[in-house]
Amino acid sequence: MFKKLxxxxxxxxxxxxxCLTAEVLDIKAEAxxxxxxxxxxxxxxxxxxxxxxxxxxxxxxxxxTKSLLAGETILKSxxxxxxxxxxxxxxxxxxPEFNAGHGAVFxxxxxxxxxxxIMDGRTLNAGSIAGVTTIKNPITLARAVMDKSRHxxxxxxxxxxxxxxxxxxxxxxxxxxxxxRYQQLLRAQGRDKSSAYFSDHRFGTVGAVAIDQxxxxxxxxxxxxxxxxxxGRVGDVPIIGAGTYANNKSCGVSATGHGEYFIRATVxxxxxxxxxxxxxxxxxxxxxxxxxxxxEMKGDGGIIAVDKDGNIVYSFNSAGMYRGKxxxxxxxxxxxxxxx
Length: 340
Ligand code: ASP
Prior knowledge:
hydrolase activity, acting on carbon-nitrogen (but not peptide) bonds, in linear amides; hydrolase; 4-stranded antiparallel β-sheet; 12 strands; autocatalytic cleavage; signal; alpha+beta
């Protein structure tokens, strides 16, 4: 809209005052100067400085930055927010530091069952998958469900069959094994909740939200769920409106935290709805759900979000949240703790 207005004004000026042409063309070029925003998360939880060594911190910030740069490259060159968030999420899924793809947490049976979802704020199309065990990058399967099927959600074997039909990359389930995660499961089953390492890494889901140069918003989330979850348990991540939501009219949201609470509070959709129907700003809407409603319910976690004007927002009620952001006017930056 803003772009259109500037362009129309520029054309009117060119016609009426030819001597202004050069100046006006400059304005036009500037107006076209590319506006985009991207925000990512790598999970929320009891992330405290005293539990993280400088090497781990460096590694995590490095992966977050790599993910931001992958998405930004696409947005900068005029690519879509959908492509950008998939590129960003794939990097986090491939990193053992995060609870998604390689590095996913274990179920109580010692397996990895992965969930993911994606939503296109322009069309309100969405795709999601739950309980898959051989999909290397679950976010790419969620995207395929959205783009190539007439459904929104596939689970288990049906999702795996669809993946094979679509030529989505699969791996042996052992690909997801990460020793550190397995130790977390053993500790959780031994009820050793005093272990800093366990409490520290309770969550770790990944997600991304972006708005591209066309003003289209997209959001996506991918996870291994929660350590020691029961076989077949599905969290908020693949539930459209709970862990993920996007609507060009308001905002895009990706969540991380204790999924059962996020489902009951329909976190992602509620934030967008508060903007749409109550006229709240993105930060107000996010805080109303995350810092008030979820706190009341005792639901730990947080969200990342982008609104239709490109504003980026974080809101988390946990001690920390792995996160990062970048836009046309802001270099990539990352955060881990409450105070960065
Ligand atoms: N929300 C995820 C779930 O409950 C867990 C997380 O965010 O780490 O499955």
